[in-house]
Structures are given as structure tokens and as C-alpha cells.
Write a structure and sequence with these properties.
single chain; 213 residues; alpha+beta; 8% strand; disordered N terminus; transmembrane helix; DMP; DUF679 domain-containing protein; membrane
């Protein structure tokens, strides 16, 4: 066999497999950046509110092809979900002396469980020191930032942008793309500096309070 022929068929060092040449690494696209920022922010929001928004938004926006009625529906959806985030920030959960889980809402004076039908005396016997669950200024801070986080996630949705800002220029689009990143950073700093012990309804990774606390 001709050794020259064999030499021609052998790949030359440094030039093998030209079709598999490594492609240059590109930065994240605006869509990837938005989705990444929004996914991180979802951890700061009540699960039920987020699922409701994600389920209804495509239909309400007509998949980005909005008419006047769609815009009203979208605004109503965003407003209702933002209000839900605020109200759920004032809720809490705890385990009673009977071992059952109870949910309720905090007030300026005490805490009222939703799923406990007993009288005031029975409630005091079932739960110890409900006054410790009363509203504080920190609850309002977290409520405001929960709404801010939700609005950042909502306005980063492509369908919402096309519906509410159909004629937005490049500057507005860039602002909406980076909005979740800015809101996430600001909210994370606030939640880190001012942590809350409230176990709000609908939030993930929340262990209910025990009656023994």
C-alpha cells in the first residue's frame, strides 16, 4: 500500500474536524436575560398569584395582539394580582395546640385565623399569645416590595409589553427588559436587611409557626 496515500488521508494536526470548529460564546439575549431575572423574582412572590397570572395573561393579552378590551382585562389582572401580593403579605400560618395548621390575617392588635370557628376564649386557649403576630411597619415594607416585584415580573412579559406598549421604542424596551434585574436586586437587599419571620400564605419554603413559640 502506498504510504503517500495514507499520509493524505490522515488529518493534519491542528486542522482536524473543521466542521466542528468551536463557535464564539455569545452573551445572553434580552429574552434570556428577562426570563432569568423573572425566574429569580418568582421565588419572592406567592405561588398561587404567580400561577394565576401566568395562566390568564396569554389569553387576556390575546397573545400580544391586543384590542381595547384586552388592555382593560390586562390592567385588571395586573392590579388584582398586585393587590393579592400585598394582602398575602399580611397573612400568617401557625400550628395550634391540637396539631392542626391554621391560616389567618394579622391586624394592628392581634391575629385572626381563617379556619378556626371557636369563640374568643377558645381561640386564646388554642393559640398562645396571638398578639405577637400583629402588624408591624416591616409588614408594610414587605407588602410594598412584593407588589414592586410582581409588577416588574408582569411588565417583563412579552405579551404584556406588546399589549400595553405596542409603540414603545428601543429605550423603553431595554428598560422593561432590565426591570426585573433591578427590582430583584433592590428587593433582595431590602429583604436581607429587614428579614421577616411571618409565614405568609402561598409562599414557598415557609414552615408554619408552632403554638409553643
Amino acid at each position: 500500500m502506498d504510504s503517500g496515500a495514507i499520509h493524505v488521508q490522515m488529518p493534519v494536526a491542528g486542522e482536524e474536524c473543521p466542521a466542528q470548529e468551536a463557535k464564539p460564546v455569545k452573551g445572553k439575549s434580552p429574552v434570556d436575560k428577562t426570563l432569568s431575572g423573572a425566574s429569580d423574582l418568582l421565588k419572592l412572590l406567592p405561588t398561587g398569584t404567580v400561577l394565576a397570572f401566568q395562566a390568564l395573561a396569554p389569553s387576556f393579552t390575546n397573545h400580544g395582539v391586543c384590542h381595547t378590551a384586552n388592555r382593560y382585562l390586562v390592567l385588571a389582572l395586573i392590579g388584582a394580582c398586585a393587590l393579592s401580593c400585598v394582602l398575602l403579605s399580611f397573612t400568617d400560618s401557625l400550628v395550634g395546640r391540637d396539631g392542626k395548621l391554621y391560616y389567618g390575617i394579622a391586624t394592628f392588635r392581634s391575629f385572626y385565623p381563617f379556619n378556626f370557628a371557636g369563640a374568643a376564649a377558645e381561640r386564646d386557649a388554642m393559640f398562645s399569645d396571638l398578639g405577637r403576630f400583629r402588624l408591624t411597619g416591616l409588614d408594610f415594607v414587605h407588602a410594598v416590595f412584593s407588589a414592586v416585584v410582581f409588577l416588574a415580573v408582569a411588565f417583563s412579559d412579552a405579551g404584556i409589553q406588546s399589549c400595553l406598549f405596542p409603540d414603545a421604542g428601543a429605550d423603553v424596551r431595554e428598560l422593561l427588559v432590565n426591570l426585573p434585574l433591578g427590582a430583584g436586586f433592590l428587593s433582595s437587599v431590602v429583604f436581607m436587611i429587614f428579614p421577616t419571620t411571618r409565614k405568609s400564605v402561598g409562599y414557598t419554603d415557609m414552615t408554619p409557626h408552632s403554638h409553643s413559640h
